[in-house]
């Protein structure tokens, strides 16, 4: 993923923030969710006959039955084979081979065909071709924008929308200076009997190879799909996907149409223990994104005769003001974190009672406490707080060129991850207000998010093409057969019914940001889980490593999920 971004515990996060939404907008939303919750709760209460029965509480986080695909002798044999030591040895070697190809994507990559650093992707494609021969004989393969790999396993029933599995071929570069800090070299794919070490082992060659393994095995076992299966592998996810996913997604949308796919599963959140319960947390939402560049222009001059405030001083004042006005935690009704809290309250013995009391209840009385709930939940830690809070962080600053000259141009880049339910435009409005305050004090003109040129005494605010609304939230209803219920049921079949499947949120973005029109059923989920290796330690840094147990589980999951989707009566 392009950032460590998701769900529950994860290190990182910075300041805290304040809210700009009008009280009325919030009240309106609170009312809507109260009504909705009341309706669904009442329906279930009456079904289970009474308000006192604890079973009613589960209504807020219903779990589906484990879902097993149909079997035949060769598929059963395949299922057994995946856990055999022969297969484990073979897939370790195939993973190692994939890691040994250093498919790094750098921030400053030039165009394909000009920047030779892309050429390593040819090696990766050739490696897949050699390593998964049945897949290459059976599926069609299109190369999109040279290195995007688009595999299609045509189903027999063209009326069924395809399933789309995604992963990216590229990895985060290993900085030369950090190579020595790795326990095993980052591009060796060394296997120590428990872990396969190397860059990309978790992010996310494990998913890519896991998907290929599952397809290869299914072909070998004689499986033929009714529902078309598409594999879409970008090659620059770590630098935002502008060459890969930006071309692959439109190719698929033009082929299958808007909402033309049944489901997308891409890399993302995994399985975590919290409150004494193990949660699988497919990411159903992604926060939005906006970088704002602020430029303060002030007269230069000799620094021996300085004014009381120069450009650097004014910029400092503005940054101080930004930090003093953080966004506050806010749980919009569509924020899946509310669903996760409800799952915790329904299924976890150690769920904090303080939080439980603040959860919206069936009679609607406690709905006014939703902001209190957000504030209380934020105390669980910064990494939790930012699942329902817009983040703001000044990350890059520059100003001044000489020790004896006053700075004429000072700039700062402020990064934001926009809360689910909020919009980048609200971030722009808030920053404009703060800039106006400072500008007024220092008699400067504000040019906010327009094409005005920079003027000599001014504060100018710009945002760029990376600005992104929060992703549409994927539906998580399990009423009947839904894409989410198939995903949940597959997970509970593989890991058992102690696993609670709950909605997760991504604080970063994956390649799926280009795929919103292909389906609303987008899940960012790493299905392979080893309880002994929880979390994403090592991702994007030294000593990235993959538990072989988790990898085997991943292969099992993909092989089951493909079949379960094939049998699902969705359309
Ligand atoms: C798998 O590899 C291990 C370690 O190299 C070896 O001991 C074992 O015999 C292998 N198993 C098979 C079935 O090849
Ligand atoms: C503010 O700046 C304008 C020019 O940008 C100037 O005409 C005006 O006199 C200034 N006002 C004060 C109070 O300095």
Walk me through the structure.
By secondary structure, the protein is of the alpha/beta class. It folds into two domains: 74-106 and 118-285 and 474-567, Aminopeptidase (3-Layer(aba) Sandwich); 287-463, Alpha-Beta Plaits (2-Layer Sandwich), CATH 3.30.70. 34% of the residues lie in helices and 17% in strands. The chain contains 15 helices and 18 strands. It has helices at residues 23-48, 73-82, 85-99, 120-131, 133-138, 205-220, 245-256, 311-324, 336-347, 353-358, 370-378, 382-385, 424-442, 483-495, 548-567; strands at residues 140-144, 148-153, 163-168, 195-197, 229-234, 263-269, 271-274, 277-280, 283-286, 288-297, 391-399, 409-418, 445-448, 458-463, 499-501, 504-506, 522-525, 545-547. The strands form five sheets. A six-stranded mixed beta sheet has the order 1-2-5-3-6-17. Strands 11-12-10-14-13 form a five-stranded mixed beta sheet, covered by helices on one side. Strand 7 and strand 8 form a beta hairpin. Helix 3 (85-99) crosses helix 6, helix 8 packs across helix 13 (424-442) and helix 14 (483-495) packs across helix 15. The protein is globular and about 85 Å long. It starts with 22 loop residues before the first helix and ends with a helix. 47% of the residues are buried. The structure holds 2-acetamido-2-deoxy-beta-D-glucopyranose (2 copies). Residues 85-86, 89 line the site of one 2-acetamido-2-deoxy-beta-D-glucopyranose.
């Amino acid at each position: 993923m392009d950032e460590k971004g998701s769900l529950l515990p994860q290190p990182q996060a910075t300041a805290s923030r304040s809210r700009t939404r009008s009280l009325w907008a919030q009240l309106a939303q609170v009312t809507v969710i109260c009504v909705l919750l009341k309706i669904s709760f009442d329906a279930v209460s009456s079904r289970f006959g009474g308000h006192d029965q604890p079973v009613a509480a589960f209504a807020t986080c219903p779990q589906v039955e484990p879902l097993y695909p149909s079997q035949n002798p060769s598929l059963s044999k395949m299922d057994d084979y995946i856990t055999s030591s022969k297969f484990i040895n073979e897939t370790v070697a195939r993973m190692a081979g994939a890691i040994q190809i250093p498919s790094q994507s750098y921030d400053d990559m030039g165009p394909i065909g000009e920047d030779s650093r892309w050429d390593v992707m040819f090696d990766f494609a050739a490696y897949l071709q050699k390593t998964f021969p049945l897949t290459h004989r059976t599926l069609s393969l299109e190369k999109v924008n040279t290195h995007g790999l688009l595999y299609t396993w045509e189903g027999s029933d063209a009326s069924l929308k395809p399933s789309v599995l995604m992963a990216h071929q590229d990895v985060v570069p290993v900085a030369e200076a950090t190579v020595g800090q790795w326990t095993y070299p980052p591009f060796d794919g060394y296997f120590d009997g428990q872990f396969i070490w190397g860059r990309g082992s978790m992010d996310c060659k494990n998913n890519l190879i896991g998907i290929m393994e599952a397809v290869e095995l299914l072909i070998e076992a004689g499986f033929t799909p009714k529902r078309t299966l598409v594999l879409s592998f970008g090659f620059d996810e770590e630098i935002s996907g502008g060459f890969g996913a930006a071309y692959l997604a439109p190719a698929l949308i033009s082929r299958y149409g808007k909402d033309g796919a049944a489901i997308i599963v891409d890399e993302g959140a995994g399985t975590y223990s919290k409150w004494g319960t193990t949660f699988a947390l497919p990411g159903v939402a992604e926060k939005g994104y906006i970088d704002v560049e602020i430029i303060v222009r002030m007269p230069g001059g000799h620094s021996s005769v300085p004014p009381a405030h120069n450009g650097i001083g004014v910029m400092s004042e503005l940054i101080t003001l930004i930090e003093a006005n953080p966004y506050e935690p806010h749980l919009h009704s569509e924020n899946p974190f509310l669903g996760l809290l409800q799952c915790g309250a329904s299924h976890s013995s150690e769920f904090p009672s303080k939080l439980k009391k603040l959860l919206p209840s069936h009679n609607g009385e406690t709905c006014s406490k939703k902001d209190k709930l957000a504030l209380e939940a934020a105390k669980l830690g910064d990494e939790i707080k930012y699942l329902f809070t817009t983040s703001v962080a000044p990350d890059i600053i520059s100003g001044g060129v000489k020790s004896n000259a006053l700075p004429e141009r000072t700039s700062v880049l402020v990064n934001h991850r926009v809360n689910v339910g909020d919009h980048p435009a609200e971030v722009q409005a808030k920053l404009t207000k703060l800039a106006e305050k400072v500008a007024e004090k220092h008699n400067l003109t504000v040019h906010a998010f327009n094409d005005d040129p920079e003027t000599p005494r001014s504060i100018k605010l710009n945002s760029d093409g990376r600005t992104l609304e929060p992703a549409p939230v994927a539906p998580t209803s399990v009423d009947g057969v839904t894409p989410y219920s198939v995903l949940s049921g597959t997970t509970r079949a593989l890991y058992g019914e102690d696993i609670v499947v709950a909605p997760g949120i991504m604080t970063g973005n994956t390649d799926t940001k280009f795929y919103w029109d292909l389906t609303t059923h987008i899940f960012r989920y790493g299905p392979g889980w080893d309880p002994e290796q929880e979390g994403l330690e090592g991702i994007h840094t030294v000593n990235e490593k993959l538990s072989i147990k988790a990898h085997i589980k991943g292969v099992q999951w993909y092989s089951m999920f493909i079949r379960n989707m094939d049998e699902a009566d969705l359309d």
